[in-house]
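Researcher: Hi, I'm a grad student and pretty new to this. My advisor asked me to get structures for two proteins we've been looking at. I'm not sure of the right format, so I'll just paste the first sequence and hope you can take it from there.
Model: That works fine. Here's the first sequence with its structure tokens right after it:
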Amino acid sequence: MQPRNMSMSGVVDLAAVKAAQEAKAKAEQARAEAARQGGGAAGAAVSPSSLVIDVDEAGFEREVLQRSTEVPVVIDFWAEWCEPCKQLSPLMERLAQEYNGRFLLAKIDVDANQMLMQQFGVQGIPAVFAVVAGQALPLFQGAAPEAQIRQTLDQLIQVGEERFGLTGLVVDADADAQQAPAAEAPAGPYDALLEAAVRALDAGDLAGAVQAYRNVLGDDPANTEAKLGLAQAELLQRVQGLDPQQVRKDAADRPADVAAQIAAADLDLVGGHVEDSFGRLIDTVRRTAGDDRDAARVRLLELFEVVGADDPRVTSARTALARVLF
């Protein structure tokens, strides 16, 4: 496959005034704060090994979108079976080390992350994209020559610096050698209760799992593991005993029935149809008002807890919900 899209002409889309000003102001504020604290840089120094990261759908928002406000993030879509990927990926990793923090390389296995592949419109691999200040653009597809890749990276870095104030990461060359093995964390005060909740889930004792998670949250309302576990256990408890065919028929026959749409959204999520579940409830919020709207909105927020705040599907659905509400 021949490389294409080596031009950076698509970068003009990144120059939207509002996005550029906000991103640049954020970067400048971070650098100023670090300078006041005596750090002299926008963030703590990173190790050379952290310049190349493996990213999945769950960590995409944190590791790509958020990091792209500090440094251009270059995404390498690859797969184990892809022969051209075996030529390009080592080259991209070497360049990430050589550029020493001027860009971050995120590697995404398309076999394990089909949703991200679809969101970026990847038609073939290897495919390389960039995200700058939250804005995505294609760079090239195929195993391109090193000279062309360098030229593209230089242009990308220039855009990030001039339009968004992204000066890259500070790299500590000795950080990898200095890192000591992490000590094993001592057992927390709620580990036994959390383990009991998991055992109850495995045994099908949903009521027992719900109670165990609630016991933890009664003492520690911010316990992330317990909140996630409770949301999952309550979802399974709600769909237990439902007739899926009847629930879906009711939802299709009565689109204005909020309870029917909520039940169908629960089943969608349990069945792995995350976008369908979120979309159904967002549409319900859009069509309703008052208590009905609030019921659909609250259930949607509960389902966000089940999937996890870091999941990009939750991020997209939150944006869509905000548009409907405001």
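Researcher: Oh nice, that was easy. Here's the second one.
Model: And its structure:
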Amino acid sequence: MTIQTIGKLEIYSGDELVSELPLNKTALSIGRDPQGDVLLMDPRISRRHAKLTQISSSYFIEDCDSTNGTLLNGRPVHKHVFRPGDSLRIGNFELRYVAADDAKQPNHVMHALVQQITQKRRAELQKVALFFLQGAQKGQVESLRKPLFTIGSPGESVAVIARRTHGTYLLHIGGEMPEVNGVEITHTMQLQDGDVIDVGEDKIKITLDLD
């Protein structure tokens, strides 16, 4: 499915830019498969090595149980949010996520602009507290400071709480579907103050600052 372009992938081999690809699909496959969206010819890369999936306004990178793994900003990753400015290392290739407006600004100007926007958006994000009712963190309280917070256990059930300027949302990432107030969700859902979330073994009550 094609969507409005929200950025691009710059693909490097060593220091050489070899290709650019617009991020205008909800899913992109990466590997040595000629039928894939991002073709990377390197014997260390699996045919179906990894994939990018768009959920809401964010992309997620997922390693498809490749032989040699995928690095996100230098660290091994199985499934994680993929943000503008991030880079993936797959075999001998580096894939950089460039936001749609980055190419229109000099690097130093864009860096300062991104910092200003990030600080402003963080100040505008809804304040969220998580009360762990069940699971490994039972009895703990977590005040969210980042825009995205992952809950659940890889291989079982994983979801993300996404804080936006217009609300806080629950996104299913993998495994069994999460429940909100005892009802299974199958799509991105805006959370309300007092909602109880079940993700794998975790049961969490969410408190929102509604001021």
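Researcher: Is there anything I should tell my advisor about the second?
Model: You could mention this: The first strand starts at residue 7 and ends at 13.
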